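User: Can you write out an input/output pair for a complex, sequences first and structure second?

Assistant: Here is one pair. Inputs:
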Amino acid sequence: MGNPNINEQLTLPPSCGGVGGGRRVAFKTLGCRLNQYETDALVTDFDKAGYQLVNFDESPDVVVVNTCTVTNQSDQKSRTVISQAARKNKDAVVVVTGCMANNFKEKLESQDNITFVVENNRKSSVLSLVEAHFSGEILHPEQLPQDVFRYEPVQKSLHTRSAVKIQDGCDNFCTFCIIPMVRGRAVSRPVADVLESVRKTIENGFKEIVITGVNIGRYEDGETRFEDLLAKILDVPGDFRVRISSLEPDGFGDRFVELFQHPKLMPHLHLCLQSGSEKTLLRMRRMYDVGQFRKTINQFRLVDPDFNFTTDIIVGFPGETEEEFQQTIEAVKEFNFSHVHTFKYSVRKGTRAERLENHVPEKIKTARSLQIRELSEENKNLYYRSLIGKTQQVLVEKVSKNKATGYGDLYVPVEFQAKDIQKNTVHTVKLTGLSGEGERLVLVGELVEICV
Amino acid sequence: MMSLIKYDIKIDESFYKVEEIRQLTGETFSLILPKARFAFKAGQHISLGIYGDYQSREYSIYSGINDDHLEVLVKEVNNGYFTPKLRKLKVGDLVEIHGPFGNFGIDAKVAETGKFVFIASGTGIAPFRSLARTYPEIDYTLIHGVRYTTEAYDRNEYPGDRYILCSSRDTKGTYHGRLTGYLKNCTFAAETQFYLCGNSDMIFDALEILKEMGFERDQIHCEVYF
């Protein structure tokens, strides 16, 4: 799963706060885009029920922590957030959900500072649980319905892009991965539900939709595969564009590449390579090799040389030799990923990799992680620089003092000066230079014309 | 008056009683369970848990899709956590099965006309027995790499001209040495589909040999065990 470092509190403008018996709710999300989407949908539920969305330090009556367990670091962050949330809000109802709630259920349930532990498959009913609690009803989380797709389409006011969940769970059983244990088996949301969710999300005013799930490339509803579903989503009428969240680099063919000629589908993919070494990929039990990955990348870049690829890399996987690591370095250089999300391998209990031999010392993992991060920054700089002089359709996310910022079609951050620009509008911007450095590197541009 | 309460009784279909344990070698055995309560494709795997234990492991299905029993092949790992517990199971004990999972296998239509080479190390033979039992008419060659010929599990089930036994530590097999040594000297039809199952080192070496012979990666399908 990609981009697992989202860690943000959501803030609705005061006008969205309702009655809700005067109750206040705070959310904290850790982990992937899917988790973020599920929090957004819960926020929508609570908002509709009249709760006021506040920050942790604004005395909420309810605190919902949507946790992650993909690495040791995620566990530590989740634990820290839970204890902070409970400590700061001693009288609040503390709900812990997300993947850590599945992975450490009994342990979390034994903690006095947590009111409810809700597993992923019941997460969509957190509001019912909280409402029952406040009305004096004794309801155990296990009495909640199990449905991983029961989420409301997200409301307009939270972000400028909204995810639409099409799939959950994974059957790949990569040897390092805990996700099949905490998200369960692969299940696909029925086509009609997905399309309805897309339509409602657009009606809610979103200009950009992110297709999300755990292993979306394996989507299968009857005869409808991932490419078929994507084509149907692109055919939904309306003024919006579509992104695909992280994707496993296997199981799709030429038709998928052709779909990117559709003007609504944005030319960016987060394709999870994990390693540039064939041996390591086999030990990870990945379903592709470097040659197949290369073929995929080349197919896309033949159509669009600027196509933006980002990826996940795990360093220090058990048995990873220096030579194997160097192969990863070479792959990162060759494929020109504009961003590499780097993970130091960490043992997940119950996975096959836990039982592999030759675990890599932490010191070596740290050094390898640093090398990949530095290379990622170089790549990003080169890639962004190559875009100077070109134009991007920028969806504005933030406007401050006549400076608008947002993301272009290629999923590159762009800022430009402009008067009377509104958030959630798309503009043609000519890229003229770079600003900032490292994680804060952005492309600077000039407004060409207002599109929408 | 006595009130009648209607209970919805839901039977958990994921539990299976062990019906038989077939000892194949000193350390390898198969668990024979009731017929699968789910439809599966030959080559797929399941997750297997022991009733009352929190851990589970993935095993390829060893039986064919039309067999009367679901069967898995297990080799006990010395000092392992799970396989010694499997070894202690008795007839009547409960195991928990989830699945089936995976895309390792062949399309039923292609099975009738295709040429297949199955390459297995040790218990990696499991999905190929399932395939051979499911599609008895299939055109295949099974190359099985083991240390000792005693590890040629159920070899009598395969036609003699289809089963190549490569044994590295005794000379009673078809070939004495690692299966990759045998593979290097083979010639295969250009349209052959290769299926590899076993440990990652064997699969890596076999992949290199096959790619060097000019076969496309898309013709080679892998199921990594460890």
